[in-house]
């Protein structure tokens, strides 16, 4: 089950997130020492914010890992069907230039769909 989170990409991401998580606490400590040395209210606020940023980032990362574990692996496979949809009709009776352009686009679309249908065979 956890095998998906042990690929080399995920392991590198685990290490990066861990390093950034630890770094936020070092930055919070650094801001705390500056605040204690008379830095002012901005340093006090950053001393509190940096650890919160780390905790928020860890929370988002854990959520991303949970979503990866719940994801269906079959979703990675490319589909073979072409999804067609009906385009809205545009009234081009008053503008011949627009009608010609839309006809050109329809021709290009028909050619592209024909090529995709030929590739699937």
Strand portion: under 5%
What form results from the Cα inertia axes?
Answer: elongated
Low-confidence stretches: none
Helices, by number, come to 3
Number of domains: 2
The quaternary state of the protein chains shown equals: single chain
Q: What is the residue-mean pLDDT, rounded to a whole number? A: 84
For the biggest sheet, the summary is: none
Beginning-to-end CA distance, first to last residue: 36 Å
Structural class: mainly alpha
Query: How large is the radius of gyration?
Result: 27 Å
Give a count of the beta strands, DSSP E runs of length 2 or more.
0
Helix content: over 70%
N-to-C SSE string, H for helix and E for strand: HHH
Would you write up a description of this structure?
The chain is mostly helical and 121 residues long. It has two domains: 2-76; 79-121. Helix content is 71%, strand content 0%. The protein is built from three helices and no strands. The protein has helices at 8-39, 41-70, 96-119. α1 packs antiparallel against α2. The chain is elongated. The protein starts with 7 loop residues before the first helix and ends with a helix. The mean pLDDT is 84.
Search tags:
121 residues; mainly alpha; 2 domains; 3 helices; 71% helix
Give a short synopsis of this structure.
The chain is mostly helical.
What's the topology here?
Blueprint (H helix, E strand, L loop, with lengths): L7 H32 L1 H30 L25 H24 L2
Helix pairs in contact: 1-2
């Amino acid at each position: 089950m956890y095998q998906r989170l042990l690929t080399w990409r995920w392991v590198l991401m685990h290490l990066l997130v861990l390093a950034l998580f630890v770094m936020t606490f070092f930055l919070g400590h650094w801001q705390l020492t500056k605040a204690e040395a008379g830095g002012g209210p901005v340093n006090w606020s950053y001393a509190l914010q940096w650890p919160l940023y780390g905790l928020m980032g860890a929370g988002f990362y854990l959520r991303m890992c949970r979503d990866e574990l719940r994801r269906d692996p079959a979703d990675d496979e490319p589909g073979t069907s072409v999804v067609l949809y009906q385009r809205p009709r545009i009234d081009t009776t008053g503008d011949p230039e627009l009608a010609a352009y839309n006809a050109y686009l329809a021709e290009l679309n028909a050619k592209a769909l024909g090529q995709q249908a030929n590739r699937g065979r």
